[in-house]
Specification:
The complex is a heterodimer of chains A (about 250) and B (about 15). With about 250 residues, chain A is mostly helical. In chain A, about 65% of the residues lie in helices and about 5% in strands. Chain A has a two-stranded antiparallel ribbon. The longest helix of chain A is centred in the last third of the chain and has 34 residues. With about 15 residues, chain B is an all-alpha fold. Chain B is about 60% helix and about 0% strand. Chain B contains one helix and no strands. Chain B is elongated. Chain B starts with a helix and ends with a helix. Classes of the chains: A mainly alpha (about 250), B mainly alpha (about 15). The interface between A and B is medium-sized, with 16 and 9 residues.
């Protein structure tokens, strides 16, 4: 499905249909958590969610038309942001709690058992609180999540990228997702003069999600290096790819 | 990222 052929409304409908299922941890360890059991739970859940995330990305109109190289680069860059924004959306109605999954709901203070994670929990809770204040709507969330993916890395977008066709397609895709978000805001009934403010407020969230993701990535890397938690398969690849890119 | 490429390249749901 080419994004240019879709109206903003159709684009949003496709995003709704692309949504991944809610994942369960299954076999949650008994509370109270230890550092190892909490990290194991979080990484196990993340690994499951990653598989669904890739399926979700492939359903975003036009994503699979990008070069495979660009698809990989975008997903490698944004995977933790996508997990985090999903977490924030699930937690939006539950102040003080992080709804990692229906069977993994954590209070802020439960983060005390893992060195360095409380800072990240606080960032996640603060950003979730901001989403709540903004009364973020489901369709706005879907557009923002897609935008995080498509905007994840500048290299596929830049002039002189390795695949100019893919670069052009990505630019069209970014325009399409912007049109979709603008359409969603316009349909909300907000007065015209407030619509651009709302757009700006929503877009300003994205840098905070990126910041939380960067901190989370550093933390996960340190946990792995200290052997607090084994990281394997897809999650290991995504972690390595993200940290290697920084170098 | 072999697994990522594999998942992207497959057409299976």
């Amino acid at each position: 499905i080419y994004p240019n052929a879709l109206s903003p409304e159709q684009f949003v409908i496709t995003l709704i249909e692309a949504e991944p299922p809610n994942v369960l941890l299954m076999n949650r360890p008994k509370k109270p958590f230890t550092e190892a059991s909490m990290m194991m739970s979080l990484t196990k859940l993340a690994d499951k969610e990653l598989v669904h995330m890739i399926g979700w990305a492939k359903k975003i109109p036009g994503f699979v038309e990008l070069s495979l190289f660009d698809q990989v680069r975008l997903l490698e860059s944004c995977w933790l942001e996508i997990l985090m924004v999903g977490l924030m959306w699930r937690s939006i109605e539950h102040p003080g709690k992080l709804i990692f999954a229906a069977d993994l709901i954590l209070d802020r203070d439960e983060g005390k058992c893992v060195e360095g994670i409380l800072e990240i929990f606080d960032m996640l809770l603060a950003t979730t609180s901001r989403l709540r204040d903004l009364k973020l709507q489901h369709k706005e969330y879907l557009c923002l999540k897609a935008m995080i993916l498509l905007n994840a890395n500048m290299f596929p977008l830049a002039m002189g990228s390795n695949d100019p066709d893919s670069s052009v397609k990505l630019r069209h895709l970014l325009n399409a997702i912007t049109d979709a978000l603008v359409w969603v805001i316009a349909k909300s009934g907000l007065p015209y003069r407030q619509q651009s403010n709302r757009l700006a407020n929503l877009l300003m969230l994205l840098s905070h999600v990126r910041h939380a993701s960067n901190k989370g990535m550093e933390h996960l890397l340190s946990m792995r290096c200290k052997n607090v938690v084994p990281v394997y398969d897809l999650l290991l690849e995504m972690l390595n790819a993200n940290t290697l890119q920084d170098h | 990222s072999h697994k990522l490429v594999q998942l992207l390249a497959t057409t299976a749901e």
